[in-house]
Amino acid sequence: MNKTGLWVAAVLATAGLLVACGPALNWRTAQLKDAPLQVLLPCDPQTASRPVELGLGQVQMTVLGCETQGATYAVSSFAVTEPSRAAEALMYWQQAVLAQLRPEGGATSSATKLNARGDGLWVLKGALNLPQSQRMTFEGISAKGQKVVAHGLWFARLEGAGARVYHAVIYGSKARPAEAEMFFSGLQLQ
Q: What is the rounded CA–CA span in Å between residue 120 and residue 135?
């Protein structure tokens, strides 16, 4: 497995280790560990952090998330020492996430973008206005052979002399547009 695959596998594995929550959506506010981001989640979040080797070098990635009603909600972030590399980090992260799913019935190794309502350029208030700041709905088949539909959001913010890049995502067996709207609208940089 290449570095991209290892990186995304680590993120997905971390999200998979998060403790399952109760059956009802019970939205609550949480704070990302070591990052100035407030998050709205539908279940009691757990946090994990670990070093991950990337094409950009080793980074300390933090994931905050939970599982409820057959879906995983997670927000992860890491610092980039050179702000000029934030766009590159976002692009790399998007490609890595999409590469973890293969199209249904397809031989290629990348998820299918669904071009759902609201997808495209998406810049959170206080975030860097980069073309790689994207909201994306995509689907594919996981390594375990299960259908996965995801709503993802990538963005970056200046932080001290560097930048921090973020990825918010919902993974489930079906599209969850209403939950995605609530989840993404609850993200607030501080």
A: 5
Cβ-based neighbours of 148, under 8 Å, separated by 6 or more: 101, 111, 139, 140, 141, 142, 171, 172, 173
* CB hemisphere CA count around 147 (13 angstroms): 6
User: Mapping DSSP to helix (H, G, I), strand (E, B) and coil, where does residue 184 land?
Assistant: helix
| Total Cβ atoms within 10 A of residue 94 | 17
Residue 183, SS3 per DSSP: helix
Backbone angles phi, psi at 175, to 5 degrees: -65, 145
pTM over 0.90: no
**How much of the chain, in percent, has pLDDT values that exceed 70?**
84
Decide if 37 contacts 84 (C-beta within 8 A). Answer: no
